Amino acid sequence: MIVAEQKPVEEIRRIIAPYERVLLLGCGTCVTVCGAGGEREVSFLNSVLRVAQAKGSNEIHSFWEYTVKRQCDFEFLDLLADKVNEVDAILSLGCGIGVQVVAERFPDIPVLPGVNTSFMGMAKEWGVWDERCAACGDCRLAETAGICPITRCTKGILNGPCAGTKNGKCEANKDMNCAWVLIYKRLERLQQLEKMRRYYPPRNFRVIPRPRRIVMKADVEPGEDNG
Ligand code: SF4
Ligand code: SF4
């Protein structure tokens, strides 16, 4: 899932300062799970902003709150059409994708980010999320026993381990397991240790074209231009 964290309240107040009527828009998917921008966080932020305003600032805002099932999908945004006509700006607590999709759906109104989108990861324990994928566009998990060397090795080494690993820990961060020791152990368990002997050429991340787009093959008509 996409992991994000809410921006500091002072930054949010600065972002919304020019707008009087603001819709606080939550998203019911990833940012709900990571506690950054779901219904509960929208409601809490609404209270915090109202209290801050009541404490004597010169700002006069009216806030509305609403949470859609998924901000990154037009079909869930149609419900907002009436509400959007009544506000001056939308503060999205969705991830960076959500903000952009809402902005595309409602081009006549400013859509502002209320969270910092951090990475793709998993919940490690309550309140702790670990990065697991950097969307590198050329997944190597088949060779590395399902453990990502790009996100879980501090140096992102494709042919590890480096010379610094000690007692299974990373030399750069003693609190972290060395990703390549984990990969070795899992390959051993899977009886695929020969994969440790293969050499994988360095990746040149600069050649990955941007923006990237994936077109479902079934939707492509022969000769159709998808550029
Ligand atoms: S190799 Fe790692 S960063 Fe690349 S796609 Fe696979 S999991 Fe994601
Ligand atoms: S010790 Fe292991 S995880 Fe740390 S940088 Fe070296 S290979 Fe990567």
Structural class: alpha/beta
Q: Which strand-content bin applies to the residues?
A: 15-25%
Tally of contiguous helical segments: 7
| CATH architecture term of the largest domain | 3-Layer(aba) Sandwich
Describe the structure.
The protein has helices spanning 9-16, 30-33, 39-54, 81-84, 96-105, 149-152, 179-189, and strands at residues 2-6, 21-27, 62-68, 89-92, 111-113, 115-125, 128-133. By secondary structure, it is α/β, with parallel strands linked by helices. The protein has a four-stranded parallel β-sheet with strand order 3-2-4-5, sandwiched between helices. Helix content is 25%, strand content 19%. It folds into two domains: 2-119, 3-Layer(aba) Sandwich (Rossmann fold); 136-207, no CATH class. The two termini are 28 Å apart. The radius of gyration is 22 Å and the shape is elongated. It contains seven helices and seven strands. Helix 5 links the parallel strand 4 and strand 5 (111-113). Residues 133-136, 139-141, 148, 150-151 line the site of one iron/sulfur cluster.
Quick description:
The protein has 227 residues and is an alpha/beta fold.
Helix-strand layout with pairing:
Elements: E1 2-6, H1 9-16, E2 21-27, H2 30-33, H3 39-54, E3 62-68, H4 81-84, E4 89-92, H5 96-105, E5 111-113, E6 115-125, E7 128-133, H6 149-152, H7 179-189
Parallel strand pairs: 2-3, 2-4, 4-5
Antiparallel strand pairs: 1-6, 6-7
One iron/sulfur cluster binds next to helix 6.
